[in-house]
Every structure is written in structure tokens, then in C-alpha cells.
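Dear U.,

Please find below the material for section 3 of the report. The protein was modelled together with thiamine diphosphate; I have listed the sequence and SMILES used, followed by the predicted complex structure.
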Amino acid sequence: MSRPKLAGAANSRPALAPELLVEMHDLMVKARALEERLIQMYKQGDGFFWIGGPGEEAFNVPLGLLIKKGSGLDYDYLHFHYRNSATLIAMGEDPANPMRQMKNTATDPYSGGRNFAGHFSKREWNLAPVTSPIAVQYSIAIGTAYAQKRHGGEGITIVTGGDAGTAEGDFATCLVWSSRPGNELPILIIVTHNKWGISTHYSTQQGPKNIADRATAFGIKNKTIDGNDAITSYLEIKAAMDYVRKERKPFLLEAHVSRLYGHSSADGANRRPEEEDCIVRIEEVLLEHGIMTREQMDAVHEKWQKEMAELHRKVREEPQPNPEDVWKHIYWEGEGS
Amino acid sequence: MSRPKLAGAANSRPALAPELLVEMHDLMVKARALEERLIQMYKQGDGFFWIGGPGEEAFNVPLGLLIKKGSGLDYDYLHFHYRNSATLIAMGEDPANPMRQMKNTATDPYSGGRNFAGHFSKREWNLAPVTSPIAVQYSIAIGTAYAQKRHGGEGITIVTGGDAGTAEGDFATCLVWSSRPGNELPILIIVTHNKWGISTHYSTQQGPKNIADRATAFGIKNKTIDGNDAITSYLEIKAAMDYVRKERKPFLLEAHVSRLYGHSSADGANRRPEEEDCIVRIEEVLLEHGIMTREQMDAVHEKWQKEMAELHRKVREEPQPNPEDVWKHIYWEGEGS
Amino acid sequence: MANMAQAIRLALHYGEEHLGVTDIFGEDVGPPLGGVFTATQGLRTAWNSPLDERGIIGMAIGLAMAGQRPVAEIQFADYIYNTIDLLKLAGNTCWSSNGQWNLPMVVMTPVGAGIRGSIYHSHSFDAVMSHIPGWKIVMPATPLDAYGLMLSAIKDPNPVMFLPPKALMRHRGEELIPGEPEDPRELSKMIDAPVGDRSKWKPTWPPVEEYVVPIGKAKLVRPGSQLTVVAWGRCVPLALQAAKQLEGEGIDVELIDLRSIWPYDWEAIRASVEKTGKVMFVNEDTEVTNFGEHLIRRTIEELFYVLLAPPKLVAGKHLPGIGLADALERASVPQVEEIAEAMRALARTEP
Amino acid sequence: MANMAQAIRLALHYGEEHLGVTDIFGEDVGPPLGGVFTATQGLRTAWNSPLDERGIIGMAIGLAMAGQRPVAEIQFADYIYNTIDLLKLAGNTCWSSNGQWNLPMVVMTPVGAGIRGSIYHSHSFDAVMSHIPGWKIVMPATPLDAYGLMLSAIKDPNPVMFLPPKALMRHRGEELIPGEPEDPRELSKMIDAPVGDRSKWKPTWPPVEEYVVPIGKAKLVRPGSQLTVVAWGRCVPLALQAAKQLEGEGIDVELIDLRSIWPYDWEAIRASVEKTGKVMFVNEDTEVTNFGEHLIRRTIEELFYVLLAPPKLVAGKHLPGIGLADALERASVPQVEEIAEAMRALARTEP
Ligand SMILES: Cc1ncc(C[n+]2csc(CCOP(=O)(O)OP(=O)(O)O)c2C)c(N)n1
Ligand SMILES: Cc1ncc(C[n+]2csc(CCOP(=O)(O)OP(=O)(O)O)c2C)c(N)n1
Ligand SMILES: [Mg+2]
Ligand SMILES: [Mg+2]
């Protein structure tokens, strides 16, 4: 049995407290276990289609931890794309819910069995419905950000999307509207750059060396970071968020991440060995600094895999929607608005 | 009667030959006289709506002179907006034709009395139909440019549009598609920046100090120039065009220009004294360098005003379209394609 | 008597002051212009946007998500066609989220021909819009209806598309908006921005009152016994003129202004057709896959056996655009004569 | 026997080699994927574009202006809705320029439900498209028709919208494309890209021949005497199944596959309705302002007095989306049973 290395043995201490690293690791592994379970559900016929975020945990978990979670203008508004499961897990979401959506059960709290996996929506957390059309969230996010600009306080708007989608006009719309002179918006514009749009490599389609550079002409602060490094991610997201919260101005953060199981079930949802695994990366740090042992980490993996398998069994038994449900919620059925 | 000053009396010689300056002046005045006549036509009830380019002559005339005019891939493809009359005049267009469109006669060669003033189209000159929807020409121009990239030679694509319109996603589309790695397009992307979109000032809506800066992130060469200076315009258009023709790569040229008669007849089409007049500017140079006298220049104005009045009288008599003409040209009626 | 642009302005003012409207925005909507049709002059919450229709609709959706009540304008319906995906999204957000999110937003965009607007200031939008579920869609034909429908649109917790006909924007109504001064010159002095420098101008608002035209309720414009004509937007006054022409010929037309495209007042149509046995639908959108064709289908489905003649559609011709020249425009969208002729033919049809 | 994806691929190959096609492009259209439905694998002129539908349509228009012959793909029709303004522009360019410019371009975009595609992989597009003048619009229901219609689309000097039904992409036809090998396994070996590394793969093209399905010509799928059913796209095989079910009940259905939405084969519809006196239109687009309603209007206008029953529409429900769960999808778009039931009801109707 290996023992933790002495903390002093490492070159320099990690920039984040050990407890936080242990928590982040736990959430990253949990999120990964969820996604791997979702893929398994697909492969076992417990769902028609899988798309999700395995490979983005090092970025998406700290993002979730740093979000000001709640409802209304004082909290962060979230306009995510379909790879943000780890952010939800870090925010405390019950992993049974993504499974419900995967299996399109009537109990799916995001869409009632209507939408694809990864298409979250949670109004109590200001989480806008994830949309299938790529990049439209960039055009919509300016609206919540504008309301928050007027409202003041510390609530901000956070929007995420992929690299290929920045070719859509909506991404430019976001830059234009976020930087109107005198109306600069408190918006954190995120691009998770995994180098791919389905089968098409970024380098074959887009000229910008860094996508973040596109913000410069608009006077929008920006940075490109290694999103596979959980510590870097945490620190850079925090710095960017602090700026947006305090200055009430936009920031564009581009994070390089991995697409660990390909695009979606449409291209097989199999592990891609050529992609770097951010969990391996944080585990190296944890090991090197003697924060966790291999055994401890293995136990974390086991715990969550077991938990996910159990949840899967439970969700499998939940009811499917009824045909007449299609007529519900065409218009608002709630109180007031 | 004043005499030309001796050329030597000026501080330094203009960077363009006197003959060219005289020609440019002549064309600028001719284009201005055309636009002022079009406005008069509107005010006299010989047309329902006026929009056009008075105030952009110092930029648009040299543009017209430098275009490789003709039909097919070896010549320049032109995707203009509705303020490019001076470019057409410099290319040798008969000013009766814009008047025909103003009066929506059946003889209007651009649209057969169907479209607004300034909405030119001339296939023999590779001049694509000017569209009313702002900025869509930026999304279309990439197509002719791509064909020319493949074809080789010296033909390029030229697209123009206004400052406000750069907020549309189509402008970003143009930047993205013009700079695809390995597929950089031979396209001269022009923005004529008059600071206004109808009643809305640029400075209230857009962050970029120079619109041209937006090209930088894409690796697209770019420059912002004073488009009210005819000599600067000529030299900078030529430099940009030479680059695009030879290197087969994109260039974004932003030119500051004046909107001398407001946006359109919708806001009165009256002379705006606060806007600089580029003809006054070139005339100062011509005078200062003794290239033309005030009298000679006055004669030019008079000549073209008279000519335009005559053309107006002629066009006024031309027939209007017939009701059944609406059914023509829904589909291609020509030979082949 | 306010014209339609003024009526909309008054409704938006009422909305700002009493119904929680937070943002009235779009291209040239704020000062100094106050909208290309002056419909947003002097409003407290009006502001100018970048020239970007996708941003405008996206902003409206986002504002609505954040609990605001926006009224967004697309300057002309002709320029809304690059936002259809966002309109569809606004229409499916409540449904897709299984009822979690609602979007209390209004989009206003002037529609139709009749202003010598040529190809890109003449588009109708009711046909395409009616094919987008999740929205409510209204189209006033009088200033008072514009006022009352705008109030309903603002109050509705769902996205509402408000389609004022361009050609009617300057038409004066015959009814006073509650609270409006009797003399239109007085109204103009109070709320129309001056020509020239407006930087110091402020409107004086008349104390307009709540007046609601419920969404989904048609209006009987003219009762009649021989045939039913259902029109909307600019075609309402045209059909009314035609109906009046026909009076002298002994043809008695019942004219219904649909006012709401979706949901629409089927009961009003049904009751009238059951009485007359003959029906004609009139609108200026192009005629292929036209909303009037939906109404014909429904009529056929539910009223086939009371019909005394085949239902008729009078609509815009299936053409790529509306030409600028007078003859071209007149040949493209319904004119009084064409409507009157169709009424005559329908009246004459023997079962 | 090729499936529809293969048939399209063969047609595009024929187009590249014999009809001057210069560019086949769109998201993931080029190597390595060759299209999300494999319809563009191995083609010489296929290339990948940025993820930008507006750029794709703009590029196609520009290429066509420059004398090229592009076939542009929008990956799913669900994602074409931010380009409607550009589609309208493509449709009015010839008309607006008074006949100067023509745009020989094809846009291909897979439509419809039936692949468990949830809200954004289930959209139909024929209704909205049919409301855009200046285009021709085709929708194949079999691989051979896909082949023949694509050849027509490529040859046409005007913009043509090619709408293959997603759910039929992998369906094998019953007819051979001229020049296609008899054994589908042989065809697959020749033209289907291998799983795994494709960087060195090249297709071996069978010597397919010119075979044209004229735009505007419907197909009689099944002759019958009692009622006419006009369907298109995925509803053709569904209606055929339903018709076969009804054989045993003594109901004799004539089934017409419209194939071209615009221009459409009115003569075929007219002749059949004159024979049967009863007609039903079946398609999966949502039912309000649906192209089938246009056909009903025309039927009513021209054939009212030969009708023995009110014409019927069977179409998608007017819902904001198609839900992922089986029950939701089945409740939203026409299924065999619903079509059969509608046929029964129509057959039973007594005049
Ligand atoms: C508007 C639109 N076009 C096309 C698609 C099909 N599509 C789904 S994901 C995808 C690639 C997205 O790539 P990127 O933006 O880099 O995000 P990633 O999936 O890599 O996270 C495409 C083309 C879509 N969903 N929406
Ligand atoms: C898509 C679209 N939206 C709105 C309009 C209405 N409109 C016509 S011109 C104009 C302003 C254009 O400003 P800019 O791009 O700066 O060009 P300029 O007129 O100043 O040359 C607007 C908003 C339009 N024609 N097209
Ligand atoms: Mg990506
Ligand atoms: Mg401008």
C-alpha cells in the first residue's frame, strides 16, 4: 500500500488549499462517473442519445463552485451549453436528474422527457434552458446581463459555448452588446475550446490563434487558459468573475479542454485515448503533494460509480410521459409570471 | 478672374498626378450632381424614396477608378451597399440609370422599377444586386471570393457596408470565412464609417475604437483611413487592393466619411452643415497647388448640374412598368445559366 | 383622435407607468428619433440598440428571463427573417422546460405594404408567425384596438407578437382612447416630438386609462346577412370600403376584423358562417401557405355542410417581392376593387 | 439497392462529374465524416465549413453568382431558421434584378421526425419554405427519387431546396439507380467509408447514369378508386402502409407522392380527385399554416363541386416541439394508425 508523500517533498505547494483540492477531485470524479453512467445508459438502450461533458471537469467543477447560486437578479444567471454537467454537480445537483433526462422520464425535472441529455434547465438556480441550436445562448445572455447591470449588486451572467460555435454571428452579437459604451455588461463569456466541432478541427476553419483575442477590439478583457488544469481553472475563473462582479464589465475567458468521449453517441461515445484526462492531471498533483493516496482516490471513483449504478437502477423504474402531456405548458400555466 | 497658383508655390506636391486629380474632381462633382438631382426628383414627386451616397465621393470615386471592371472571375465582384453611386459613376455608368431607378421606370436597368434608389445591379460588371437588408452582402461576398480564390488570377471581391451594420452577425461571418487557414480569401472588406445608423450614433452602440481592429484577431490586415481625403483614399485603396490581388488574402479597410444629406428622404434629405464636404477638401488642394482655378471648378459643377437636369427631363418621360410585369423573372428566363 | 402610432405610444406609456414595462428598445427606438414611425417618442424606458436584429430578440428573451417586461421592436417586419430561430426558441422555452420558464415579452414589428415601400418595406409576417407555436399574435386595424391589444400583449405572461400595419400607422381612428384629449391637435402638442432639436423636449402625457382588447377576440366591424368577410390588418379598412360599395348593389356583407391571429376567435367566424353560408378571408400576406388557408381548412373541416359556396381567399400574390412602381404594388396586394369583385362573385354564387 | 443517403451521394457524384457541381459543403460534409447521414462521403468536391449557417447560405449565393454550382448542406433543417432572410434573398435575386442574375444553387437539409431526434432534430421545413417565392422545393420519399430529384435540382438554373426526410435516410429502395450494382453489399463496399481511419480511403464509384425526376411531377404510388391521398416525404411510406391495411376492409385508396412541393403537380391531384371525389393531404409539418392547407384551398377553389366529402388534412400537431420520449413523438406527428383512421373516416363519409 502506497503512502502519501510528505507535503514538503513536493517542489512547491499547490495554490489552492488541500481541502478544496480534495473537494474538487471528489466532484470531478462524481461528474465523470455520472457521464460514464449516462453513456452506459445509452449503450444499454436506456436513452436514445447521449451528449455531455466528460473531459471538461477541471474547468466546469470550479466554475460550479464559484457560481453565486440562487434565483433572481442578485444571483448569477447561467446560459450553458450541453457539456456543463460537472458544473451542475459542483452546484449540488442530484445526479439522478440528468439520468432522468437521459431516459426521458416524466420525472425529468429539466424538460419532462422532452429534451436530449445535457439540456438542463433549473429556474430556481437561474439556469436557462440549454438549447440545441449552437451559440444562441450568447445572444440571449446579454438580456439577463443587461437586467443585472441595471439592478446592480454582485449577480452576473455566465454564458458558455464551444469553439466551433464562435463562428456563428451570435458570438459576435454577444461581444457587440456586452461592450456598448456606458452599457458594458456584467457578463462572463466563456468558450470551452476542445478543438472540435463534431468531426471538424478548429484549425481548419478558424483563423484566430486565440478565440479570446476577438474580445480585444471591443475593449473586453480576455484570457486563454489551460482548462484541463483544475487549479489554473479555479484561479482564473475566480479572477475573471471577481472582475465582472465588481467592475460590472464583460470578460471573455477561453479554456482549452478535452473531449474525452468524442462528440456524442452519434460518433460512438467511446473513450478517446489521444485526449488528455484532467482527472489524471489533478490526481498527479494530489499524489505528488501527498494530499491523497492512490487508494483513497480509487475509493472515490468506486464510491461514485456505485452510487451512479444505484441511481440508474432507480431511474429506470420511473414512469415515461403520457401522450397527452404534449399539450401541457405550451403557454405559461404558473401563477403571475 | 483668379489664376492658378504656380505649382511650386505649394508646400509639397500632392501624391497623385494633376491629371488624375482633375479627373477625380470631375467624377466627384458629377456623382454629387447626380445625387443632388435624385434628391430633387424625390422632392418634386418624381420618386417615392431617396437614399444615396453624397458625402462619400472622395472614397467612392477612387474605388471605382481602381476596380477591375468586367464580367466573370477574372474581374472584380462587387457587393455594395446603397451609398455607392459615385463608384458607379467613376466606373463609367450612365447617370440616367440611377434616375430611372429613382423614378421606378420600366427602363430602370437595375430592377425594372421594382427597387429603391441606390439599389444597383449590373451583371456585366459583376455588380451584385444591392440589398436593403443591412450587412447581408458581407455573408454573400465570401462566395464570389471563394470562387476567385480557386480560379486564381487578379480578380478580387469587394464588399462595402456602413458602420452600424457591422453589429450584424454577417460582418463577423465575413471575417471568419475570409480568414480560414489555407483558404484565406481575396476580398477587400470595406466599411464606410459615417458615424450614424439612421438616428443612432456609433459611439453610443459600439465599443471598438476602430472597426478595423476587429480584423486583427483573425490575422486579417486592416487600416482605418480618412475617407474624406480623396488622395489618401486613392492611395490606401490601391495599397489594400494590390495586397488582396497579389497575396490573395483579405484586407479590411475602414474609411471615415460624411453623410452629407442625412440618412435618406425619411429624415428630410437636407444638407447637413455640420458634416465635412469632401469636394470642398479636394478643391482646396486643387486650388492650393494651382491645378485648377475656382472658375474652372465652378464650370465643372455647372456642367454636371445642367447635364443631370437634362437627363431628369428625359427620364421623366419614360414609361412606367405594367401590372403584369410582376410575373416576369420569378425564375430565370435567360439562356443556360 | 390618436393615429395608430400615437395610440401605440400611449399604450407603451401606460405600460411603463402601470404594467411594469421595463424596456422599450430597438433600432432608433429611443431619442432623438423615437422610432421610424414615431411610435416610441418620449417614452421613459425607450432606448436605441445596435443594428442587430438577432441581438434585439436575444436581449428581449434574456430580459424576460430575468423578470423584466421588455417590448422589443424590429424596425420593419422585412428585417425579422434572420431571427426566426430565436422566435421559435422564445415560443418553445416554456414547453421545452416543462413549464419552468415563461417569457413575458412583446415584439412589435410593422408589417405590410401600402407605403410605397418596395421590396423590403412591404413584407407581411402573419403567415410565417402563425406557424410558430408558443406565441400569441395580434394585428390591430384601428388606433383604439392597437392600444387595447398592446395592453393585453404587455400583460400576457407569454411572448406576444404585435404586428401594426405600416400603412395604417398614420391613420386616425374614430374612437377616443380613454383619457385621450378630444382634440387631436391638443394630443399632438402634448406627445409629438418637435421638428428640430429635441434634446430638451419632454412629452406631457394625457391621463390614459386601462382599456384592454382581449387576445383571441374578433370584432364585428359591420353586420351583414349575405356573406362573411374575415379580414385583418390593413385589409380591414379596404374590405370595409368594398363592403360599402356593395351596399348600393344590394349585397349585404358581414365584416369581421380578426384582430388576433393566434389564438383566434373561431366562435365569431363559425357563428357568422352559420348565418351567411359564405365566407371569404382577406389579408395581404402572400397566398401560398397563408394563414387564411388555415382558416379555410378549418371552415371546411367544421362547416362544410352549412356552406353555400366554396370559401374564398383574397391575399397577396405569390411573388418574390412587392415592386416600387405604383402598378407593381397594386398588382401584388389586395386592392379595394379586387376585394369588391371577389365579394360580388361570392355573393352571386348559387349553391 | 441504395439507401437514400447512398442515393444522394451517387447523385452528387454524378453531379460533380457530369453536371458541373463545383462545391458540396457544409458542417462536417467533407472528410473525414462525409455528413452526419453519410450522404456526402468520398465526394471529390466536398468540404467542411465553419459552424455558421448564415455563412453557408451566403457562400452558396455568392458561389452561384460567380458561376459555380454549389450544393450547400444545412446539417439539420432544425438549424436553417436563422437564414430565412438569406433564403428569401436567394429567392428574390432574379426578380429584384429584373432577370439579370440567376442563382443555380441547391440547398439540401434533412427534415422531419422519426429518428428520436427530440426538439431540434425533428423539424419539418416544407411549410415555411413553400411560403418563400423564387425557389423550387423537392422532397423525395425513395432513394431513386432522391437520385432523380437531386439531378434535376443540380441542373436547374434557379435555387432549389432539397429536403430528404431524416427517417428515410437509411431506408433501402426497391428500385435500382441506373448503373448501380445489383448487390447492396457490393455497393456498400464500393462507396461507404470504412469505420476507423479513413485518411487513405477512396470510394470506387459505380458508373451511375443520368436519371432525372422532373421537378413538378408527382408519382402515382398506388392507384385506387375510392379516395385520393396526397402525401410527401416520410408520410408516403406511412400512408402506403395505411392504404395496405385498408385493402382488407374493402377501402381502395389512391396514393400520390407529391415529390415536388413547388412547383407542384396540380394536374395529378386534380385528375385523381375528379375520379374519387375525396381527398386527404398528409404531411408531418405542424398543421397551422401548413402547405397541405394551401392544397385544400386550391381543391376547394377548383374542385368544390366534384367533392363528395370535405378534404382532410393529417399533419403534425401545432406544438412547440417534438418530445424525445416515445409517447410524445408518437402523439405529435402522423402515425400509420392515425392515417388509417382518417382514411377510414373519409371513405365512410356519405355525400
Ligand atoms: C445552429 C446549429 N448548427 C449545427 C448544429 C449541429 N451540431 C451540434 S454540436 C455541433 C458542434 C459544436 O461544436 P462546438 O461549438 O465546438 O462545441 P462542442 O460540441 O465541441 O463542445 C454541431 C455542428 C447545432 N446543434 N446547431
Ligand atoms: C437588417 C436591417 N435592419 C434594419 C434596416 C433599416 N435600416 C436601413 S439603413 C439603417 C442604418 C444603416 O447604418 P449603417 O450601416 O451605418 O449605414 P449607413 O446608412 O450609415 O451608410 C437601418 C437601421 C435595414 N435596412 N436592414
Ligand atoms: Mg468544440
Ligand atoms: Mg453609418
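For the text of the report, you could mention the following: Chain D has two domains: 4-191, 219-348.

Regards,
Y.
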